[in-house]
Amino acid sequence: MTPRVFFAPMFAAVCFILAYIVVKGRGDKFIAGYNTASKEEKAQVNVKRSRILLALLSVLSGTIFCIIPLLADNNGAITGAMMVLLSFGLAFIVLANTWAKKK
Predict the structure, then answer these.
(1) What's the mean pLDDT in 81-93?
(2) CA-to-CA distance for 77 and 51, rounded, in angstroms?
(3) Is this structure's pTM higher than 0.85?
């Protein structure tokens, strides 16, 4: 049994649990920078949209971590899955800095 077969489902479970916590509205402390922001800075953030983005990224990450053990020893496919995750992560960063800000 390779380590990725053992650890990938654990990471997936953590991602799905995080998504559930965020969707329930109790995960604002997991939104990067929101916890340490001043009241004025928090007023500029649309928290509902930030929660949606964080939950979607967590579900996407969990799904990819579920797929990794199925890819067996195909390192090219695993690298591709990680590149997809990285691409979506960067897209979510851009959305968090544009779509999730109040105007």
Answers:
(1) 89
(2) 30
(3) no
